[in-house]
Amino acid sequence: MTERICKASFNPLLFFDCFYKLTKNYETEKKFRLVIDDFVQRIIKRNETKETSKLFIDRFNEISKSMTSEEISEGLAMFLGAGFETTGNTISSALLLLAMNPDIQDKVVAEARVVIESDHTDVDDEKISRLSYLDRVIKETLRLVPANLFQAM
Q: Which of 3, 12, 33, 124 would suit a FRET pair with 65, their CA atoms being 20 to 30 Å apart?
């Protein structure tokens, strides 16, 4: 998915499914989606046999009584994807935007050097929390390219 975002950034035609479906990447993505769908179906089947479980999937099953099997599958795939793809997509988008804006990239690097090299110790949560410009860059990235924007693709 991240690769699709990067390629689509340089070739806007890939944002349109009618063009994207003509690429090799589409076939690869389709194979990965089949693996995810298979995994989701196994979770659904496993949980249909349990009677008293408090797993998230069980709560999802309770609220999805009126949903079709396909809707349930799509919902679970979305939750699975949201767990790991959003971070990668956000990082990829931020790096792309920084590469496209070298002046902003220079400010991020300068801030990181000042904060991280200030006392010659390891990077920790406190130092990361002092990277206010980087924090604003990440927030602007999320504004421009929401983390789940490409989830439906």
A: 33
pLDDT digits (tens, 9 = 90+) for 122-135: 888 888 899 999 99
Q: What is the pLDDT of residue 152?
A: 47
Q: Distance between CA 99 and CA 96 in Å, rounded?
A: 5
| Longest alpha-carbon distance in the chain | 58
Q: Helices 2-10 and 24-49 meet at what angle, rounded to 10?
A: 150
In this prediction, residues 40-52 reach a mean pLDDT of 66
- The two tokens of residue 88 are 């990668």
Buried b vs exposed e over 130-151: b needs ≥16 C-beta within 10 Å?
Answer: bbeebeebbeebeeebebeebe
pLDDT band for position 101 (cuts 50, 70, 90): very high
Rounded to whole angstroms, the Cα distance separating 22 from 35 reads 21
Q: For 50, which DSSP code?
A: -
The radius of gyration of the chain's CA atoms, rounded to the nearest angstrom, is 20
pLDDT recorded at residue 116: 86
Q: Is the CB of residue 120 less than 8 Å from the CB of residue 73?
A: no
Distances (CA, A) of 17 to 4, 12, 36: 11, 11, 20
